[in-house]
Design goal:
Elements lengths: L1 H53 L24 E6 L2 E6 L5 H10 L6 E5 L3 E4 L4 E5 L12 E4 L2
Antiparallel strand pairs: 1-2, 2-6, 3-4, 3-6, 4-5
């Protein structure tokens, strides 16, 4: 009888332990994946900024083959850019996870020039403040919620 009680107590302790640690591990993995995505985004953005600074009269989308990426950069196809009226816009091609959007904002110094597209082709800062920026027409077909960084 005692072995059964000991086994049941072990099962209860294991269940309680898993119930407390698994959600923490899942959140840690989401945070880490968001940070990796943000590092990838900012590496892509730096390559676009470097190209634009070297070619200030450029207009349109900077081809990836023309940009010089840092060693170790892996293209995911999740990022794009466009130069419109002398301003560089670097953006996600799909709505990123909340963790990735927050990490992009944090790595970008919580700048008001980092935001997300909202209805009407305008942008709000990722801290929730209205930025008053109107995005170019080339971004109008992209979904609401994409992350956009304005400027170089």
């Amino acid at each position: 009888m005692y072995p059964l009680i000991v086994a049941m107590a072990g099962v209860v302790l294991l269940t309680a332990h898993l119930a407390m640690t698994v959600p923490v591990e899942v959140q840690r993995e989401r945070h880490l994946a968001g940070d990796v995505a943000a590092a990838n985004f900012h590496a892509y953005r730096k390559a676009a900024v470097d190209y634009y600074n070297a070619n200030p009269t450029f207009s349109g989308a900077i081809p990836a083959g023309s940009m010089t990426f840092p060693l170790g950069y892996i293209s995911t196809g999740a990022w794009a850019n466009v130069v419109d009226s002398g301003t560089l816009y670097t953006y996600s091609t799909a709505v990123p996870t909340p963790e990735a959007a927050e990490a992009i904002f944090e790595r970008g110094g919580r700048s008001m020039m980092i935001g997300k597209k909202v209805t009407g082709n305008t942008m709000t800062s990722l801290n929730g403040a209205a930025s008053g920026f109107t995005l170019p027409a080339t971004l109008s077909a992209l979904p609401v919620g994409i992350v956009v960084v304005i400027g170089n």
